[in-house]
Amino acid sequence: MNEERFQLLTEKYLEGRLTDDEARELVDASAELRSRLFEEVTMAGLLDRAEGKAPADFADKVQAGLRTTAEKEAMVALVMGRLSSAARRRTAFRGFIALAAAALFLISLYVVLRPGTPAPAPIPVVRAPETKPFAMSDDATRAVARGVEYLRKTKLPIAPHNTPMAADELVLLAFLNAGVQPEDPLFQKLLGQVLTTKPQRVYCISLQAVLLEKLDRVKYRERIAECAQFLVDNQCVNGQWSYGTPAPKPAGTTVKKTRDGPLTGNNSCSNFAAMGLRACVDAGITIPAETFDRAARCWRELQRVDTDGRGGWCYTREETPHRPYGSMSAGGLYALVVCD
After folding, report:
1. Is 334 exposed, middle or buried (0-12, 13-18, 19+ CB in 10 A)?
2. Helix (H, G, I), strand (E, B) or coil at 136
3. Which residues of 221-237 are buried (b: 16+ CB within 10 A; e: fewer)?
């Protein structure tokens, strides 16, 4: 791929006009070009925040920056100038805080050491009212029991969108939430299949991390770390997730990114990845902060406003017509909470 072709495809990607074949062409480009692509996408996001406009409002600036080095350096200077001024304000504010803290310390020392100071009255402790545990109705209890019985007797199909992976993690989570004990023979059989299968798909691995953290975060920490490495290494260039491909095992419980996933993904896989990453962190696995930063930036950039003025998400940005809907919008909000 020559320089002119790379710049053209990068511009089309930033404008949301990239075809599947062109996306594959970028993914297959050299490591140097892929690294430059990530830098351009990151710069576009920074400028978006600095200008406070939608990406379409300053597409011309991004395109100009891609065409000439001088204009690109000017955009970098604009962003860094804003960041530098903000940093100067924070530094000045820290000095004020330090003086205030010193004054507060001296006042507190005088109050404690002066003679005859009466002891302050104890502050009453206000306790939150105890909440009663959730109790299901008889009808709900019978419905859950019937669901468990169905899963026990039914031959579980392979998920067509997740080939070649089975739905074992989803069934195990259903069992666990329905009160089936881990010692149950079918539970043990499915768990054994999960633990001996190489991590391959974002959906399954995200659910696996949730399952194992809920089951025993200490016992299964090494496997949860594998789930974390898989999710970190399969994050797309733009911050999303797609279905995923196998990744190497981590060396311990601190995950370091070794590669990028494809150019873009979808909001469904990305929502599941957020659930999995949260479970990994809860289990004591260290995830690179960049993973959450890129994901949060992408979720914000992909939010769209419906005709009635309400914002939300759907499956992908390219979906036509792009109409946000409830379940994916709930997933987007959840993912942003995890990233924050």
Report:
1. middle
2. coil
3. bebbbbbbbbbbbbbbb
Contact 200, 244 (CB under 8 A): yes
Helix, strand, coil shares of the chain, percent, nearest 5, are: 65, 5, 35
The type of residue at 227 is C
94-to-15, 33, 97, 105, 145 alpha-carbon distances in Å: 41, 41, 5, 16, 59
Evaluate if pTM is beyond 0.70.
no
Give the integer Cα–Cα distance in Å for 271 and 305.
19
What six digits make up the tokens of 33?
A: 């070009």
> Residue 220 to residues 92, 195, 208: CA-CA distances in angstroms?
47, 9, 11
Q: Using alpha carbons only, how large is the chain's radius of gyration in Å?
A: 26
The whole-angstrom separation of Cα 27 and Cα 33 is 9
Question: Rounded distance, CA 206 to CA 295, Å?
Answer: 15
Kindly give the interhelix angle for 267-282 and 221-233, rounded to the nearest 10 degrees.
Answer: 150
The burial class, CB within 10 Å (0-12 / 13-18 / 19+), for 144 is middle
Amino acid (1-letter code) at residue 68: T
- Reading the block at residue 200, the tokens are 């391959």
C-beta atoms surrounding 260 within 10 Å: 19
Which residue has 């010692």 as its token pair?
Answer: 183
Could you report the average pLDDT of every consecutive run of 10 residues in the chain (340 residues)? 80 77 80 78 64 48 47 52 47 52 57 54 61 82 96 82 79 95 96 94 96 97 98 96 94 95 94 98 97 96 85 81 86 96
